[in-house]
Structures are given as structure tokens and as C-alpha cells.
UniProtKB/TrEMBL annotation:
Superkingdom of source: Bacteria
Protein's recorded name: Heme-binding protein
Native species: Paraburkholderia kururiensis
InterPro entries to which the protein is assigned, alphabetical: GlcG_carb_metab_protein, PduO/GlcC-like, PduO/GlcC-like_sf
PANTHER family named in the record: PROTEIN GLCG, SLR1406 PROTEIN
TM annotation in the entry: none
Length: 134
């Protein structure tokens, strides 16, 4: 039998708070979603001023990063590189801003952020992911 690390409530909230701190430090109104390795929600926050649609997009970015075991930026680059058939893939968020949370070389979940430029979303998500992975 194999064993693996699993995100608990304490880790999910640590990720959320680290991401929130990064967003607030930069004055960015974003939505932040934390999911487990199956893409199921663990923690969520929509900061003041974040557009309602960002809540949905953040959750989908997190789910896509968790299930795909990679940053959502990889999918965006694939499509921009000409692999447009990937637009029909069942994953909904092929935009940068979803980052997997990796512990002991295992993807244990992901963080999705939406609300600002895609590289800024990724910066906030990475800050959250690094808070547990470090």
C-alpha cells in the first residue's frame, strides 16, 4: 500500500492566508480558491472589489491545476502555441493563475486565483502554494 501527504484544513487556510497577504500587499482585488488533489474545494475567499466572475474562474483554475498536476499556464501556452484542439478539453480553466501545491514530490492540491493580469494571478497563487510546500 502507498501513502501520500494530504492537505488538511490548517494547511488550506495557511495557503489561503499567504495568497491573500500577497494580493493585499499589491492592492489586488482577487478571488482565491484552494482545492485538494481531486479538485474539491477546501478554502475560498473573494477579496473586496473582486468581480463576481473571478470567484468561478479561480475555482476552475485551481481544479484544473490539481487534476492536471501542472500550472494552468501550461495549457494556455499549448493553445497559444497552435494546439487549438485543446480548447475542447474538459478542463475549464486554461488560463494562467492555477498552481499545484506540491509536498514531497506529490501534488496534494492547488491554488487558483483570478481578478488581475494572468501573471499577477499566478504570483498570488504561487505565494499560497509555497507556504505549504516550503
Amino acid at each position: 500500500m502507498q501513502t501520500k501527504p494530504v492537505l488538511g484544513a490548517a494547511e488550506a487556510h495557511r495557503i489561503l492566508e499567504a495568497a491573500r497577504t500577497e494580493a493585499e500587499r499589491n492592492g489586488w482585488a482577487v478571488a482565491i480558491a484552494v482545492v485538494d488533489d481531486g479538485g474539491h474545494p477546501l478554502a475560498f475567499a473573494r477579496l473586496d472589489g473582486a468581480a463576481p466572475i473571478s470567484a468561478y474562474i479561480a475555482q476552475e483554475k485551481a481544479r484544473t491545476a490539481a487534476l492536471g498536476r501542472r500550472e494552468t499556464k501550461a495549457y494556455e501556452e499549448m493553445i497559444n502555441g497552435g494546439r487549438t484542439a485543446f480548447l475542447s478539453a474538459p478542463l475549464c480553466a486554461t488560463l494562467e493563475g492555477g498552481v499545484p501545491v506540491v509536498v514531497d514530490a506529490v501534488v496534494v492540491g492547488a491554488v487558483g486565483v483570478s481578478g488581475v493580469k494572468s501573471d499577477q494571478d499566478a504570483q498570488v497563487a504561487s505565494a499560497g502554494a509555497k507556504s505549504v510546500a516550503a
